Amino acid sequence: MAKLNKVEKDLLDQLVKQKEQSKRGYLTVKKRKLKRKSLGPKRRARDLVEEFGLCPISLQPMRRPVLPSSGQAYDEINIVRFCSSGKKQCPVSGAALECHRKGADKGKVMLTPDYALRNVIRHQALQAKVYIPPIDKDELLKEMRGFLTPDAPSDDFATIMPTVAKAVVDDTHLGYIKLKELQELLESFQEAAQRCPGSCTAEAFPALVAECFACRVPHIVDMGVDMLPSESAWRCPRVLREALSVGQDPDCRGQVLVAIEKKFKEKAYTAAQARAVLTFDTESVPVQQFQARCADHILFTSNTGLQLTKAESEEVMNAALRVADELSGCDSNRSSGYALWSSALTALHRRGRALDSENLERLFWRDNRHVLATLAGSDQELLQWHLNRQPSKALSLCIEALAYCADYSDGFHQGDSYSDGEEDFLGSDEEDDAEGFHHGLPRMRTLTVHNYN
How far apart are CA 233 and CA 236, in angstroms? Predict the structure, then answer.
């Protein structure tokens, strides 16, 4: 363990004294009825790291503590990312931060490395057995390359490896590691992961790719896109989650969504990946359009070659139908209403898959009743096939719809007008209102009788 110099010892003593005098430290000690001298060195060191060594932005131990003009210490990567969004105020105090006025760094916030605090944090973290990746570039890359092994992961692999991978990408963002060095590292891990699936490398490689997406820096994100087709990266849930998040960022979107959609075109997806894409919650129109296209690939492309069980195939196709129905308005060229449901029911039937309970209920929704009435007339055999897969559910839904028709019929007279909410159920858009109603009622009676049988 490296010894602290006089300045660093003075800083450590000052931090200890500050902790003892702080209200938070006083109340904590009083509540636990403990005195500082009763705490072991490991516990004291951990308390000091948690009290003074955490970045206020990330609440993680600071690797590279820096001081802006406000005097509040931050980890360099976190304050750089914070300021890159255009904010030039201290996140803690709100004070305006001084920026460079000349040179290549003009407009960037002035940051001064705090070497004494960095060494104190590392000294205490080592005592507390809290891992912090090395600062030196060569040491950091050496630690990352240490995961290039066919051996199975060790006990501490799950905690150390993601931290090292993040540090490598962070230092590339800050310029301490060259882009070429990161590219070579990714390629080395990609080749090793293909040779040794199930090894340390096969788990470390997707973690490194996920960090490339998480950093939100366009030229580093592009490296992640290049690695996305690799089997171990593509099958990692976190990689896909980070890639979809990048898709919402117009500055970093690039070819991320194109690369994911290509996988769906090639039918190189699992049920978990289909679920992740279809259920991703977003308000971004480009991402919604991408989800709708992926839903079309799942619904209307042959499933030959897909590594899915029948149950998984039925599940993802029904999920795709829900997405296609919900997002039918995100693109004027997309099918909707009867055209969508008729095509989807045909595609499901052709593969021997049926509507699930949720989609069956959705078909009987008020907004879809004109679709149901049209299907009952023009695609009755197809509709009946799907209803027969869940006869009890279908029967109850048909009776409810028939009761709705009958109740409305009592007050309906030829030539009467009715509201948009009432006409949703009755016939297609091309039919006259009254004619549509009289077509809808016998169709529902026919379906109900079929389900009684």
Answer: 5
- Span 39-77, pLDDT tens digits: 555 555 566 566 677 888 988 889 999 999 888 899 999
Task: Extract the tokens encoding 218.
Answer: 């366009």
Alpha carbons 17 and 39: distance in angstroms, whole number? 15
SS (HEC) of 89-117: ECCCCCCECCECCCCCCCCCECCEECHHH
Q: Determine how β-strand 65-67 pairs with β-strand 112-113.
A: antiparallel
Beta-carbon contacts of residue 2 (< 8 Å; ≥ 6 apart): 119, 123
> In this predicted model, what pLDDT tens digit does every residue of 257-273 receive, in sequence order?
999 999 999 888 989 99
Amino acid, res. 194: Q
Distance separating alpha carbons of residues 3 and 368, to the nearest angstrom: 74
What's the first-to-final CA gap in the chain, in angstroms?
82
**Of 304, 362, 295, the residue nearest 331 (C-alpha):** 295
136: Cβ–Cβ under 8 A, 6 or more apart, which residues? none
Please count the helices (runs of H) and the strands (runs of E) in the chain.
Answer: 23, 3
Beta bridge partners of 20: none
List phi, psi (to 5°) of 113. Answer: -60, 140
Task: Select from 196, 195, 255 the least CA-distant residue to 229.
Answer: 255
> What is the value of pTM for the model shown?
0.76
Asked whether residue 188 carries a pLDDT value surpassing 50, the answer given is: yes
DSSP state letters, 241-259: HHHHHHTT-TTT-TTHHHH
Separation of alpha carbons 68 and 259, rounded Å: 40
Return all residues near 92 (Cβ < 8 A) that are at least 6 apart: 56, 70, 72
- Average predicted confidence (pLDDT) for the chain: 79
Under DSSP, is residue 16 helix (H, G, I), strand (E, B) or coil?
Answer: helix
Please report, to the nearest 10 degrees, the dihedral formed by the alpha carbons of residues 356, 360, 363, 364 taken in order. -160
Contact 314, 353 (CB under 8 A): yes
CB of 431 closer than 8 Å to CB of 410: no
Specify the residue for token string 């931060």. Answer: 97
> Which pLDDT score, from 0 to 100, does residue 429 have?
41
Tokens 């992640």 map to which residue?
224
